[in-house]
Amino acid sequence: MTSGHEISPSVIDGADDVALPFSVEALDVRGRVVRLGPSVDTILRRHGYPDPVARLLGEAAALTVLLGSSLKFEGRFQLQTKTDGPVEMIVVDFEAPDRLRATARFDAARVEALGGAPLKGADLLGQGHLAMTIDQGSEFSRYQGVVALEGQSLEEAAHQYFRQSEQIPTQVRLAVAEQFANGETGYRAGGLLVQFLPQSIDRARLADLPPGDIPEGHAHFDAGAAPEDDAWVEARSLVNTVEDHELVDPEVSSERLLYRLFHERGVRVFEAQAVHERCRCSQDRVLGMIRSFSPQERRDMIAEDGRIGITCEFCSRRYDIDPAEAEIDPAE
């Protein structure tokens, strides 16, 4: 990470589709602000998702970019949920350094049955799990962290993930909105992630998780007994003042938001990272996928017209495949 520069109150840079790293040395915190405009709008409009589903997938996209943009190597960060809720599955891929794609699978009837009232992510997710996977390629082992989803929001699930898997004090804020500008409506998503990373490991130590049932006569576990570092308490309290509109309003840039939060302590920003909506699918990848099936399964894919039709769940691109290209011999 380069040396960066301190933010001036006159800065009005409001670029979309970027992740902006920052640090507040006085509080020993680092983080990123993400602003998604055309990239997330393209993803959400392409499939015509109902508004509640679009907002949930937008939150997942912002969270994925917050985490994936920290990768220091060429690789892929994936966020995936599987639940029994109206939104059965979410998959968001971030391929370093800048490629984003996302999709959701949902039960339209169950989403509609929830009514027109504003819904939270927790209303749509239900019971299941959230998995975060880092894939550095075939030469390296994949890392995966899993969090149980039990009616909490994506923000709350992210906090649980960092408490259990990373043991890093972390605060996350996510927001999605549909806004009207230049005669058109469009979705915008934003996120803020702040982590307490002091040089002393002991300063960052979290309270232990509850040990389970405690024998009679022994002291009960008190999650609040371990005092939190004052610097982290201050940083977390400031992050909790962030309102949704500040994360998505094009008039409130990432720099302005960071200046409001941390100017008294001195906040430095670093080179912004661009984010682009890009799918990983290709003719070669589709052919490779088809060839991974058994000969009989491949023959079953052939339609009445003698072709194989495959539609990418992410970008909706349609592939028309000649069975011969997929090494299928109908005579077998």
Automatic annotation (TrEMBL):
Keyword entries, A-Z: Chaperone, Cytoplasm, Disulfide bond, Redox-active center, Zinc
Keyword presence, Ribonucleoprotein: no
SUPFAM superfamilies (alphabetical): Hsp33 domain, HSP33 redox switch-like
UniProt feature coiled coil, ranges: none
Stored InterPro entries: Heat_shock_Hsp33, Heat_shock_Hsp33_C, Heat_shock_Hsp33_N, Hsp33_helix_hairpin_bin_dom_sf
Entry annotated with the keyword S-adenosyl-L-methionine: no
NCBIfam families for this protein: PRK01402.1
Name this protein carries in UniProt: Hsp33 family molecular chaperone
Taxonomic source organism: Methylobacterium marchantiae
Source species taxonomy: Bacteria, Pseudomonadati, Pseudomonadota, Alphaproteobacteria, Hyphomicrobiales
